[in-house]
Amino acid sequence: ALKRLISNVHVYQTNKTQELVKKLEGLDAFLIEEKIKLIILDSIALPFRSEFDGKHIPARQRLLNTVASKLKYFSDTFGLPVVTTNQVTTKFSKAEYGAALGITWAHAVNVRYRLNCYDSPTNDTAVRREWIIEKSPCSPSKSL
After folding, report:
1. How far apart are the first and last CA of the chain?
2. How far is Cα of residue 91 from the mean position of the Cα atoms in its chain?
């Protein structure tokens, strides 16, 4: 059963934004032929943060919009859930953590969850996990 499950997983790796865009542009037929049921993009931030510096933010944002539009197209057209993971970055001015890729990506997603993992203050081996619905068109923000 595990072999059959693994044989149905298709993996494509890249750390280049142009390769990612090119792969997404040619994915329509593959989704149909292989009867794909789920797209997972881990991590959306990696190619964008490694290729673009602070001087090229507009170009990065245009490419992010292209990727977001294509992923939304796949979801709408093929009825596929699309899951992306992002990276966490530090906001030094406020000494807090936040999602990478800025406001463009924050507004591009329809539903945003955050997963937290906390060490127990009283027990070295216990861990508390938290799932937060941060953005959803049909659910209020809540923590589970």
Report:
1. 32
2. 20
Place of tokens 């142009």: 18
- Please give the structure tokens belonging to residue 126: 């216990």
- Closest by CA to 105, choosing from 53, 143, 69, 142, is 69
| Global pTM value | 0.76
Q: Using CA atoms, how far apart are residues 135 and 133, in angstroms rounded to an integer?
A: 6
**pLDDT in single tens digits along all 144 residues of the chain:** 888 888 888 889 888 999 999 999 999 999 999 999 999 988 888 888 888 877 788 888 889 889 999 999 999 999 999 988 877 776 666 656 766 777 777 778 788 887 878 777 776 677 888 888 888 888 887 787
